[in-house]
Structures are given as C-alpha cells and as structure tokens.
Specification:
238 residues, alpha/beta, three-stranded parallel β-sheet, two-stranded antiparallel ribbon, 35% helix, 12% strand
C-alpha cells in the first residue's frame, strides 16, 4: 500500500476525534478530542519509514487525536529572503503552502516534523519551509509540543534529528521524546518494517506525545501559561 510521509502533525484541544475526517468543533469537557495535521514534504511518498509513522496514527487515534494530511513534497517552495514583509503583513510575502500551513499550525497544540537524511541534514525543501513558517508566524508557540522523526539508509540520523529540533527549542515548544532518538533505518519501500527497534521508538513517541499534549492542556486550564519576561536582544557585535 502507498503511504504518505507525515512531516508536520498538529493537534488541537477541544476539537473533533482523530477518526472524524471533518473539522467539526465540539464543546467538550474532561477527556477532550485532539485534532492534528500532517505536512508531507518528501518528494517521493513511497518511503518505508513513512509507512511506519503513518501507522502511528493508530496510537494517536487511541488517544483521541486527529490528523490531517497536507501534501507539499512535490511543490516548489522557495527559501526565506529576509525581506521582513511578514512583520507588516502578518504572513509570508510568498503566498503559498507556508501560509496555508501557518493557519493550521496556530490552531494546533502539537507538531511532528519528519525528514529523510540528505548529506547528514534534513531535506532542503523542508528546511526552506520551516524557516519561513517559524519566522513569518508571530503567534505564540509556547507549550505547543514538538517532535521530529528522521530516516536514513545508514548514517546522519542524529545530526538531522538535532537540526529539526532547533525549531522547537527556540520557540518555547516542549520536545516529545521516545525510548531512543526518533529515527528509523531503511532505503527501499518496506525496509523500515524490518527495523523493530525503530518501529517501537515510533510507537512510544506517539504515546508519549499524546500524553504530553493532554497533560499540558490540563495544566493550561488550571495554571495558564508560564509568565514571560520582555525579550532582551543582546548582539555580540555592538
């Protein structure tokens, strides 16, 4: 079966269950549903590790999360040109899939980014997308849960994993972890299914992330978000 490549998974509090494919809002209390979305950015959507992470949806479904797929892997996405138009417009000057994803990102409580390894780095189109997405969006990302997943035939996994996590840790986003670094091995379609430890790492990540999102949602209801100080800019060259 042909599986998608989820690279961007969001989850929202007080929204419809995972298995409901429509965006219908409900006023829920107690064990609320969660809604999510997946941004797909691998040009080829036949990678085996993708199949594994897609099946993670079952773990999210058990936790009443919902995911949606937004395919961008075959789109032409340019990088940031530092024009700063987003500071005035509130969105990127290049009106493409980045601005479409920004709206979903703002509504979500969690985000999963996944990439294959290219020269010990993430996919270049994915990086261009994330640079523009995080820079052009002015909404508060504090306590949105982030997770990254990487796949490779052999090496470069840890470097790529670290690269993707930096988007979360500069934005006040807690990072969901698993029993090992979130990576899986394989080259041809279906090969990742032989990586039993990698598959277990993905399942554990799904459960941990679902738990963390729910726990933060309950904490926000009772305590609110942490107090923020005015940001202090300190340049090394004055």
């Amino acid at each position: 079966k042909k599986w998608d490549t989820p690279l961007f998974t969001g989850v929202s509090y007080n929204s419809s269950p995972l298995c409901d494919i429509h965006r219908r809002r409900h006023n829920l209390t107690g064990r609320n549903g969660y809604e999510g979305f997946n941004d797909q950015r691998k040009p080829s959507q036949k990678w085996k590790y993708v199949y594994r992470f897609r099946r993670n949806g079952k773990d999210f479904c058990a936790g009443r999360n919902r995911d949606r797929n937004l395919h961008v892997g075959n789109k032409d996405i340019r990088g940031c040109i530092a024009c700063h138009s987003c500071m005035e417009k509130g969105k990127c000057t290049f009106d493409d899939i980045v601005n479409e994803a920004a709206t979903k990102f703002e509504e979500s409580d969690g985000l999963v980014v996944a990439s294959p390894v290219y020269y010990a780095s993430a996919n270049a189109t994915l990086i261009a997308f994330l640079d523009r997405l995080f820079y052009s969006t002015g909404f508060d990302k504090t306590m949105k849960v982030g997770a990254s997943v990487v796949a490779a035939r052999r090496g470069g996994l840890s470097a790529t994993f670290d690269e993707l996590n930096k988007y979360f840790t500069i934005s006040g986003m807690p990072v969901a972890s698993s029993q090992y670094w979130n990576s899986i091995h394989g080259r041809e379609q279906g090969e990742a299914m032989q990586d039993e430890e990698g598959l277990q790492t993905m399942r554990t990540l799904a459960r941990n992330m679902s738990f963390l999102i729910k726990s933060i949602a309950l904490g926000k209801e009772k305590y609110g978000l942490p107090e923020k100080e005015p940001f202090v800019h300190t340049n090394f060259i004055r």
